[in-house]
Amino acid sequence: MCPGAVPTRFNVDGDPLQPCSTTLSTGYQRDGHCTVVPGDHGAHHLCAELSQEFLEFSCEQGNDLVTPRPELDFPGLNPGDRWCLCVASWIEAHEAGVAPPVVLDATNETVSDAIDRETLDVHAVGD
C-alpha cells in the first residue's frame, strides 16, 4: 500500500465492510473489522464463523486459537465465534475439507484476489 493510501474498507460485494465481531476484538487493528492495513503480513482479511473442526485443524497446524493468551490480549476462541482469519489459513483449511463458513459482508474485498467468488458463496454463512 502506498504511503497515504486509504485502507481497504469494502467487502467482497463492494459494499462498506461490516464488523466481523462486535463482541471480540478481531482484525489486525483489533477493531472488529477485517481491514487491510500496512504491516498485516498475515492478511487477516477473511471473516469466518469458527467451527470445532477448523479450530482443531488450526491447532494441529501449530496455530492454537483456543487457548487464551492474556499477554497478547487474546481471549481464546470457541465454535461460533466470528474472527478475521489469515486468507492463507482459510485456504489451507479449505484444501483439508474443514474451512469454516465465511461472513461475506465482513470479508474484505481483497480476499477475492485469492479465493474465487463461487468458493466464497459455497462457504457463506447462511442468513
CATH superfamily of the domain at 46-123: Protein of unknown function DUF2237
Estimate the strand proportion: 5-15%
Overall body shape: globular
Amino-to-carboxy terminus distance: 33 Å
CATH topology of the domain at 46-123: Phenylalanyl-tRNA Synthetase, Chain B, domain 1
The helix count comes to 3
Order of strands, main sheet, comes to 1-2
* Cα-based radius of gyration, to the nearest Å: 14 Å
Class inferred from helices and paired strands: alpha+beta
Please characterize this protein's 3D structure.
- The chain is of the alpha+beta class and 127 residues long.
- It has three helices and two strands; from the N terminus they run βαβαα.
- Strands 1-2 form a two-stranded antiparallel sheet.
- The longest helix has 9 residues, at 52-60.
- The protein is globular.
- Mean pLDDT is 91; it is low at 1-6.
- This is DUF2237 domain-containing protein.
